[in-house]
């Protein structure tokens, strides 16, 4: 597994405002979107491209275009939805599939409650969006699901991770084509499975308490 942790003052600045408990939902949503766009630049570094001819006003030359099959962006509902617009802004030709997952707050085990994805993911590059990588259970389940459907590789974009969850994802995906791009790796998980210092419950902060 490849891990890339953003190292940029603009990203840390925006993350700092996200972490602040006083930041209201509208600002939180706008910042989450901006952060994803910045992380998407790194996450798409290995996006498949093909050479294409292009005629400029001056000469003929060769450029690059995103290859087919088109990349698939998969936000994990709910909180990953807050990252979708920021991602497709940078990758407008991508298709979008949805996975609804909820983490049982007692067992911390993930449960898939909704799925809307193309049947065949053969040769697809998939970009999974989920702001929080806590125990890693949700991301491992999502990656397993996509690879089992034939996805070529999976790149996860997360705003924050706990070291415990990152290690779990690394162990669970050993030998497979997985990349994780992160805004930051925090200190640890608390006894309730929350990232510390973290930013609280991203889904609740984006969309309200359920
Ligand atoms: C949160 C978060 C991740 C998951 C992370 O979702 O958005 O999907 O928990 O935890 P894990 O790494 O321990 O699996 P939550 O279950 O709160 O659902 P929500 O997005 O609908 O609020």
Automatic annotation (TrEMBL):
The keyword GTP-binding applies. It catalyses: UMP + diphosphate = 5-phospho-alpha-D-ribose 1-diphosphate + uracil. It comes from Schumannella soli. Coiled coil: none annotated. GO terms for cellular component: cytoplasm. This is Uracil phosphoribosyltransferase. It holds the Pfam family UPRTase. Belongs to the UPRTase family. Pathway: Pyrimidine metabolism; UMP biosynthesis via salvage pathway; UMP from uracil: step 1/1. Binds 1 Mg(2+) ion per subunit. The magnesium is bound as Mg-PRPP. Residues 5-208 form the Phosphoribosyltransferase domain. 5-phospho-alpha-D-ribose 1-diphosphate binds at residues 78, 103, 130-138, 201. Allosterically activated by GTP. One of its GO terms (molecular function) is GTP binding. Its cofactor is Mg(2+). Uracil binds at residues 195, 200-202. NCBIfam families: PRK00129.1 (NF001097), upp (TIGR01091). Its EC number is 2.4.2.9. InterPro entries: PRTase-like, PRTase_dom, Upp_B, UPRT, UPRTase/APRTase. Gene3D superfamilies: 3.40.50.2020. Keywords: Allosteric enzyme, Glycosyltransferase, GTP-binding, Magnesium, Nucleotide-binding, Transferase. One of its GO terms (biological process) is UMP salvage. Catalyzes the conversion of uracil and 5-phospho-alpha-D-ribose 1-diphosphate (PRPP) to UMP and diphosphate. It comes from the Bacteria.
């Amino acid at each position: 597994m490849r891990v890339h942790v953003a190292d940029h003052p603009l990203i840390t600045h925006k993350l700092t405002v996200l972490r602040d408990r006083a930041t209201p939902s509208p600002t939180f949503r706008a910042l989450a979107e901006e952060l994803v766009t910045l992380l998407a630049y790194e996450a798409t570094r290995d996006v498949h491209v093909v050479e294409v001819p292009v005629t400029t006003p001056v000469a003929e030359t060769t450029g690059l275009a995103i290859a087919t099959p088109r990349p698939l962006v998969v936000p994990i509902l709910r909180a990953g939805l807050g990252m979708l617009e920021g991602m497709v802004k940078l990758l407008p030709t991508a298709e979008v599939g949805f996975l609804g997952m909820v983490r049982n707050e007692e067992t911390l085990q993930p449960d898939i409650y909704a799925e809307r994805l193309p049947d065949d993911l053969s040769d697809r590059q998939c970009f999974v969006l989920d702001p929080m990588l806590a125990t890693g259970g949700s991301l491992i389940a999502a990656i397993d699901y996509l690879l089992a459907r034939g996805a070529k590789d999976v790149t996860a974009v997360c705003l924050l991770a706990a070291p415990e969850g990152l290690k779990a994802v690394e162990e669970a995906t050993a030998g497979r084509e997985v990349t994780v791009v992160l805004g930051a790796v925090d200190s640890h998980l608390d006894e309730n499975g929350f990232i510390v210092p973290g930013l609280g419950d991203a889904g609740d902060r984006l969309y309200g308490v359920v």
